[in-house]
Please model this.
Amino acid sequence: MKRVMLTVAYDGTNYHGWQLQDGQVTIESELNSALSRITGEDIKVSGASRTDAGVHAKGNLCVFDSEARMPGEKFSYALNTCLNEDIRVVDSVEVADDFHPRFTKTEKTYCYRIYNSKFANPLYRLYSHHSYIPLNIDLMNKGAEFLIGEHDFKSFSSVHASVKTTVRQITGAEIKRSGELIEINIKGYGFLYNMVRIISGSLMEVGSGKYPPERIGEILAARDRAAAGPTAPAKGLTLENIRIL
Amino acid sequence: MKRVMLTVAYDGTNYHGWQLQDGQVTIESELNSALSRITGEDIKVSGASRTDAGVHAKGNLCVFDSEARMPGEKFSYALNTCLNEDIRVVDSVEVADDFHPRFTKTEKTYCYRIYNSKFANPLYRLYSHHSYIPLNIDLMNKGAEFLIGEHDFKSFSSVHASVKTTVRQITGAEIKRSGELIEINIKGYGFLYNMVRIISGSLMEVGSGKYPPERIGEILAARDRAAAGPTAPAKGLTLENIRIL
Model:
């Protein structure tokens, strides 16, 4: 028996998110059926991050166990011949039998993309949120500074989330603009449900001038979802990578 | 009667190119039917550049004549409510009655995108060509220098093209890399049929080491399509903009 870890990139547009759901096509269901076809075993992958419907990834991680003789690094090639083009296994590697990326310290990097122009751009429509309201990224960066470090992010989490603690540590939060495309890059050791999308929705309110940058600090202090801005749409979000520490 | 010029961006994936073709859905057919719906007139746009099936644009241009009272700048808003999301009219403006962007001196900028990695990236799959062969952009830039200036580009044009002269002037040719994404940026006053895709296919042969950079100069001198590299796939090409001089 061996344990293999996959690095998976996907366009979330046509999937009901990562997680298995009855009767829905998800990234997990696609990987399970491709692996079962290749190995003849009944394989279920276990993922590091359950991305929502419509969210994209350049490097999500998952592991599975197999009796197959195929070396770990060959799984990526074999899987990519079975999977749709909107899912690619960009790396596969054998790991220790008890290794799991969800129960290991990792740093996750997310990018929330905004196309900031009068009209949407067809070439970015699947991978960014369109905002026709001009956004000032200097103000957004000032607001983002309040997020760095260890804080209670309860205000930036969806109300139905049930977790032991809402304290998380953000290691980077930076906003860049290249022409009409704005990228909100956020990294940290762990994230609450919808956290990056609520942070992005709140930073957009800062960028438009609706909130002063200091409001981000006040939202944190409020520990109340109602204090924060709206949850930004799923299609703007990409899980860029998960770094194992 | 007024003449209106549209700046049109589109994802070419789902269209049979720009030009009207019986029974095919094209960018031109979509614009014509949207304009006819809005104005009640039988309107046919006339474009600056007939992009091929699968080629994308951020700023193609076209003009049309209308008796409608709507001011020129309002057409973009009206059209975007009728068009599919993969076509956006990003600008509309009234021009002189005899103005036509195809019969005016313009500088066109194209970008050919290559995703250069072992496996394709789902998020770039529609807008780039995947090459798993490592490409050296320093060599590609050396090869591209031979293209700058006025030359007979007969070798870089599809054999069935019938034009008076195959002499064209290239004003810029530069290759950049950002991570796995390579961009071949080419601008000039006019292009032959498939010219940018044959140049890109030839520069990829330089990048892989199959051709030395000097071969680009030899291909030009040969004035023979057979001397050049393959025509790179359509989906990697984007008409970035057309600048009216």
